[in-house]
Write a structure and sequence with these properties.
Layout (H helix, E strand, L loop, with lengths): L3 H8 L3 H9 L6 H14 L5 H8 L4 E5 L6 H16 L3 E5 L5 H13 L4 E4 L6 H9 L4 E4 L21 E5 L2 H13 L5 E5 L5 H16 L9 E3 L4 H12 L7 E4 L2 H13 L9 E5 L13 E4 L2 H17 L7 E4 L2 E3 L31 E3 L4
Parallel strand pairs: 1-2, 1-3, 3-4, 4-5, 5-11, 6-7, 6-8, 8-9, 9-10
Antiparallel strand pairs: 10-12, 11-13
């Protein structure tokens, strides 16, 4: 098996130059760099990752901990993480925390013990043990999709006005307000919200967007119209049934993720209720087959792949500059206007635009970066 010294002799350069080319640790003159790459190809040289990690204290690996990897949204995030990690020369170790705080803490510890250079995590609703572990062991980490508020930090962590770790997520409040505002613009006055798992930042922010749109429309908030579907299909079935059993049931529903959309549709079918003739439906999370439903689902599309890729880039920036202030990056969503809201089919050029005066965004805004979580 050829060694780095063999590559150096073949290329006519020093072993240090070969190391700089392969590890990207220092600029190398173009002709020398090309000579090294040609020698690597000719000799079929494969770097000894284990030996390199012993010297550099880096394994060029990233740990990813996300729950419900089968969820289409998290599948898109995984694809983004994997592509960005591979492009940067990093391998990926994946674990499923199952949204359970104790298991979450355990799998992140296992990833840390495998000497990953950093971790990317979609935290549970109660990640206090996780935050304490990461802080105690100074593990470079990026929180994904769900964020922690400023001040929620372990002892010895950052200032109370700053999030404890870098975070990358989608905008939630404004896009949810767009969905609800679209429905109020169509004349709906009783709009049910099937909310996610209590305690998650995504749940809280989407409920805030729902309330914001009601206030904008001059409608009173009715707590009976907000029922938790616990971010899962079965929970959404129960939540939909509860909303439909109210003395004055809603005339429209907003579901707060794609799994709960499926559960809501199942209950509506069991009740022989047609969408949108009997009840309008809008959902947070677009997915590949949303356009195949009849009617086609009006939805908020999150940039899952870009969230995953951005999380990798933020983590690599953290590894390069450990002392930099933490930041929260929020990426825009897109309003995908179809027909489940009760609007007629529109021309292809208008497919992404809600009708004038009914609320909703027509195109995504620019990404936002903040020094503190919001």
């Amino acid at each position: 098996m050829p060694t780095m010294a063999d590559v150096a002799r073949s290329a006519g350069v020093s072993v240090a130059t070969v190391s700089h080319v392969l590890n990207g640790t220092r600029p190398v003159l173009p002709h020398a760099r090309q000579a090294v790459l040609d020698a690597v190809d000719a000799l079929a040289y494969t770097p000894n990752t284990l030996a390199r990690s012993l010297v550099t204290s880096r394994t060029r690996s990233i740990g990813l901990a996300v729950s419900a990897i089968s969820n289409p949204y998290f599948t898109e995030i995984l694809q983004g993480v994997e592509a960005a990690a591979l492009e940067a020369g990093y391998s990926l170790l994946i674990a499923d925390p199952h949204d359970d705080p104790a298991h979450e803490r355990k799998v992140v510890q296992l990833l840390h013990e495998r000497r990953v250079d950093g971790v990317i995590i979609a935290p549970s609703a109660h990640p206090h043990d996780l935050v304490a572990y990461l802080g105690r062991h100074a593990v470079p980490a990026v929180f994904l999709d769900r964020v922690l508020p400023a001040g929620d930090h372990a002892a010895g962590g950052p200032a109370p006005d700053r999030a404890p770790f870098d975070q990358v997520c989608a905008e939630n409040t404004g896009p949810t307000a767009d969905l609800v505002g679209h429905l109020t613009g169509l004349g709906h006055r009783r709009i049910g919200l099937i909310a996610g798992l209590p305690g998650l930042s995504t749940t809280e922010e989407r409920v805030a967007g729902y309330r914001q749109a009601l206030a904008t429309a001059g409608l009173a908030f009715d707590e009976d119209l907000v029922v938790s579907g616990h971010s899962e299909s079965a929970g959404a079935e129960r939540a939909t049934a509860a909303l439909l059993s109210l003395p004055a049931p809603p005339t429209a529903l907003v579901t707060a993720n794609n799994a709960m959309t499926i559960g809501a549709l199942r209950t509506l079918r069991e009740r022989s209720l047609a969408v949108p003739d009997d009840i309008a439906l809008c959902c947070f999370d677009d997915f590949a087959w949303a356009d195949l439903f009849s009617p086609r689902l009006t939805a908020i599309a999150q940039p899952g792949r870009e969230i995953g890729a951005r999380a990798v880039r933020v983590l690599l920036e953290r590894l390069a500059a450990p002392g930099r202030p933490t930041r929260t990056v929020r990426l825009p969503c897109a309003f995908v206007h179809r027909t489940s809201c009760g609007c007629p089919e529109r021309r292809d050029g208008d497919a992404g635009r809600p009708p004038a005066g009914t609320g909703g965004t027509t195109e995504p805004s620019a990404p936002l970066e903040r020094g503190t979580a919001s």
